[in-house]
From TrEMBL:
Keywords: Aminoacyl-tRNA synthetase, ATP-binding, Cytoplasm, Ligase, Nucleotide-binding, Protein biosynthesis
Protein name per the record: Glutamine--tRNA ligase
Limits of the Glutamyl/glutaminyl-tRNA synthetase class Ib anti-codon binding domain: 345-445
Keyword Disulfide bond: no
Subunit note: Monomer.
Chain positions recorded as ATP binding sites: 37-39, 43-49, 233, 266-267, 274-276
EC number(s) recorded for this UniProt protein: 6.1.1.18
GO cellular component, one term: cytosol
Residues of the tRNA synthetases class I (E and Q) anti-codon binding domain: 462-534
Motif window: 'HIGH' region: 36-46
Any one GO molecular function term: glutamine-tRNA ligase activity
Residues covered by the Glutamyl/glutaminyl-tRNA synthetase class Ib catalytic domain: 30-342
Subcellular location as annotated: Cytoplasm
Amino acid sequence: MSHVDTEVRPSNFIRSIIDEDLASGKHSAVHTRFPPEPNGFLHIGHAKSICLNFGIAQDYQGQCNLRFDDTNPEKEDIDYVHSIQNDVQWLGFQWSGDIRYSSNYFDQLHQYAVELITKGLAYVCFLNAEQTREYRGTLKEPGKNSPYRDTTPEENLALFEKMRNGEFKEGECALRAKIDMASPFMCMRDPIIYRVRFAHHHQTGDKWCIYPMYDFTHCISDAIENISHSLCTLEFQDNRRLYDWVLDHLDDFQSPSRTRQYEFSRLNLEYTLMSKRKLNDLVAHNIVSGWDDARMPTIAGFRRRGYTAASIREFCKRIGVTKQENMIEVAMLDACIREELNEHAPRAMAVINPVKVVIENYPENQVETVQAPIHPSNEDMGKRPLSFGRELYIDADDFREEANKKFKRLVQGKEVRLRNAYVIKAERCDKDADGNVTTIYCTYDDETLGKNPSDGRKVKGVIHWVEATTAKPAEFRLYERLFNDANPAAAESVDEVLNPQSLTVKHGFVEAGLVNAEVEKAYQFEREGYFCADNKDSTKDHLVFNLTVPLRDTFA
Ligand code: ATP
Ligand code: MG
């Protein structure tokens, strides 16, 4: 499983249904859609749905629409519309034709509501929110009919027209489907299908002051777009009755190949919040720097952190598509990116906790260039030049004045190999008033350049370094998971489960070539982890590197 393979896709129950529908002739083509509500950035759960919907369309030579489900104007924003398009394309998918909006169909949806009223299947109800709740009943008790349920179609047409003309206040009345107040499915107890909202809409402006509800809109939008298989998550299982009921009662949608809804389980990831509402709270309360904070489980966050689209697609492939609710381990996602980067990421050296090394027997003012492989096992990636000189930085953790044999790094009086360069020996060190080492004085052996660690010398340790006069200062953002609790969604408040160490900022140095590091493209900083230049804050004068993923699964 070590390389990303997008050709072979495992089958799943949805593919089996599609295969049957094509074999029986019920459908001659596959047409799916991805229907995000533009009320936040897409997260890794959406990636599952995107890979499923667009992936199926690709594999069956069908089509997949991108449709914004935009029926809640107060919560939606055009910026989200743009970020969502961006993220879908970044994941490697292209929608069929133009972008669709449910709001494209507001005129038709209004007409279909009128059709239901005319057929005596919808009515304008004046119960207030509290009364509506009371009349709805409970899971154990049936509801009661609204006193407005038996008004005539003529009266209801007139009232609905008044709703549309802005003659009722928000919450004063709503249009409800007339279905069954005793249904075991709560969603069938005369659900609201239109409500009054004096809200400006990012697509339709101020044209409407009534907006259709999701359950009424979604099925009709699917049917208008000739969607063959409408794939959604399990929480809509009950609502499938309503999906079918609406279409069953509209004359335009009586074709036997009409759209059908199929449900699969949502992605739940350990240590991760997955609801846009909760993610929005993190942004609103400045717990993170924005929707694209590298700790967010958003597509934009993963991208900023250096995850690749291929690794996210691979993850979605590995988790599969079922009807079983489950919780996926973060390690599974990390493994996908780690495997890819181990194979493909260029290597580089960065010192995150720098301490100065002076090589006393190296000529003053001399800087030489040594060649280092870009990848240890892929020679085709070529070599990179590294400067070496009298003053270097190494990581403070790689030096001890005294240590036992297990410490295979630099110890006073002993030797260590500098990766891609010479063997050095630590002679003595300077310390500040607090006892912290400030400078390590070493000697080097000029016979040891370029020899591999099995050159006969008894030097076990290899450490990384950068040359002090050419290295570039850099900020390192070290990330840990945002939450300490495997199921943060269950916590009373996020404050209880936030990991105070989710971000640590360090200042150190990187080898000179990294001034040209492309943003979002991860390197393996040898012995440190995978890092990429930050796509917002990194500049040539102020390099900022984000930890993509540690070298090993440190939580296992
Ligand atoms: P959220 O609760 O995060 O706001 P949502 O379902 O309300 O999610 P939508 O924008 O309505 O978000 O979702 C668009 C599509 O993505 C829907 O078909 C939805 O079922 C799917 N989706 C959302 N979250 C997940 C998830 N965790 N796993 C799989 N699919 C998801
Ligand atoms: Mg939603």
